[in-house]
C-alpha cells in the first residue's frame, strides 16, 4: 500500500498562484510512488482565492480547502491545515512558489531514511530578496537566537516535512499564538535541514515586512524564553549600582559649597530612567499579556467553510 503525503498550503490573497502551485506539486508527485492530497487554507483572503479554491476542488479530488472566517495569521492557518491532514507525512509550504516543489523528493528521501522532521533553510545567495529584506531577516534570526532558548538557522522557512507522529503532537498543543518555526525545533526528534534557493515569486508581493518580522521575533522570544525578564532585572540592578557612584559627588558638593545645578542634566537623567522603567514594564507586560490571552482559551481560528469532513 502506498504511503500518503499531505501538502498543507496556507494562502492569503493568492488567487493567481493557487492553480500554479497545485500544478507544480502534482507534476512532482506524478514521478513519485506516493499518494498525495493538497489542503489549502484560505486565511481570510479579500481577492478571488475562495472561488478559485472551490472550482479547483470541484475539478480535482486531490485538492481540499478550508476557508477561515478572517485573517488569523499564517501559523494559525497552518494549525487548521495540520488538524485535517491525515497523511503518513505532512509537507507545509507557501503558495507563492518561492518554496520549490522540486525539493519534495529530497524531503521524502530523508524522511524514509529515518528523519521525522526535514526542513528547508534559505541560502544566503538569495537573488530575489532585496538588500533591506536580507538585513531585516538576518537581524530577525540574530535576535531570536540570542534572546531565546532556540537555535534557528538564518533563513529557516515554513517549507518542511513532518512525520505523522510529530503532527499528532503539534495538534495537541493549545498555546496562544503558536510559533511553528520554534515549536518544531523545540519538540526534538531526528531533524535534517536542507539548504535551498528561493524561486522568484510567481505573482503578487510578500506578506512579510519589517514590522511583521518584528512582531514575529517578539512572539518567538516570549514564547520560548524568559531571558528578556532577566535582562530587565540585570539592567535595573546595574543602574541602581551605578547611581551609588553619584553619592560621593553629592557629599563633596555639600561640604565644599558646590551647588548642584543644571536643569538639562536633571531632566535628561529623569527622561533616561523613566524610559528605562517603561521599557522594563513593557517587557513584563508582554508576558502578562500572553498569560491573559492564553487564559481566555479562544480558538486559534474559525472555519467558515470547508469541503473536508
Automatic annotation (TrEMBL):
* InterPro entries per record: Glyco_trans_2-like, Glycosyltransferase_2, Nucleotide-diphossugar_trans
Residue ranges of domain Glycosyltransferase 2-like in the record = 6-167
**SUPFAM superfamilies given in the database record:** Nucleotide-diphospho-sugar transferases
Asked if the Swiss-Prot or TrEMBL record annotates the protein with the keyword Ligase, the reply is: no
Chain ranges passing through the membrane: 229-251, 263-288
- Keyword line: Glycosyltransferase, Membrane, Transferase, Transmembrane, Transmembrane helix
Which is one GO molecular function term here? glycosyltransferase activity
One protein family per Pfam? Glycos_transf_2
A single GO cellular-component term from the record reads:
plasma membrane
Protein name (Swiss-Prot/TrEMBL):
Dolichol-phosphate mannosyltransferase
Amino acid at each position: 500500500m502506498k504511503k500518503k503525503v499531505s501538502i498543507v498550503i496556507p494562502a492569503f490573497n493568492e488567487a493567481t498562484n493557487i492553480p500554479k502551485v497545485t500544478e507544480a506539486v502534482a507534476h512532482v508527485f506524478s514521478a513519485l510512488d506516493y499518494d498525495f492530497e493538497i489542503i489549502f487554507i484560505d486565511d481570510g483572503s479579500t481577492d478571488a482565492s475562495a472561488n478559485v479554491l472551490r472550482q479547483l476542488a470541484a475539478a480535482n479530488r486531490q485538492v481540499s480547502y478550508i476557508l477561515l472566517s478572517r485573517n488569523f495569521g499564517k501559523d494559525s492557518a497552518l494549525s487548521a491545515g495540520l488538524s485535517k491532514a491525515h497523511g503518513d507525512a505532512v509537507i507545509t509550504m507557501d503558495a507563492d512558489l518561492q518554496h520549490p516543489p522540486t525539493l519534495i523528493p529530497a524531503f521524502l528521501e530523508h524522511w524514509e531514511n529515518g528523519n521525522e522532521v526535514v526542513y528547508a533553510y534559505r541560502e544566503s545567495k538569495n537573488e530575489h530578496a532585496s538588500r533591506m529584506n536580507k538585513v531585516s531577516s538576518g537581524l530577525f534570526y540574530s535576535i531570536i537566537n540570542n534572546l531565546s532558548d532556540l537555535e534557528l538557522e538564518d533563513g529557516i522557512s515554513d517549507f518542511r516535512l513532518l512525520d505523522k507522529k510529530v503532527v499528532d503532537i503539534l495538534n495537541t498543543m493549545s498555546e496562544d499564538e503558536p510559533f511553528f518555526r520554534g515549536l518544531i525545533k523545540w519538540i526534538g526528534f531526528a531533524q535534517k535541514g536542507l539548504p535551498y534557493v528561493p524561486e522568484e515569486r510567481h505573482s503578487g508581493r510578500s506578506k512579510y515586512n519589517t514590522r511583521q518580522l518584528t512582531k514575529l521575533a517578539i512572539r518567538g522570544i516570549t514564547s520560548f524564553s524568559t531571558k528578556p525578564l532577566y535582562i530587565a532585572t540585570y539592567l535595573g540592578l546595574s543602574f541602581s549600582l551605578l547611581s551609588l557612584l553619584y553619592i560621593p559627588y553629592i557629599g563633596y558638593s555639600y561640604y565644599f559649597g558646590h551647588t548642584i545645578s543644571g536643569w538639562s542634566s536633571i531632566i535628561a537623567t529623569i527622561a533616561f530612567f523613566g524610559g528605562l522603567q517603561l521599557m522594563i514594564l513593557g517587557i513584563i507586560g508582554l508576558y502578562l499579556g500572553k498569560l491573559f490571552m492564553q487564559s481566555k482559551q479562544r480558538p486559534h481560528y474559525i472555519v467558515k467553510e470547508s469541503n473536508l469532513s
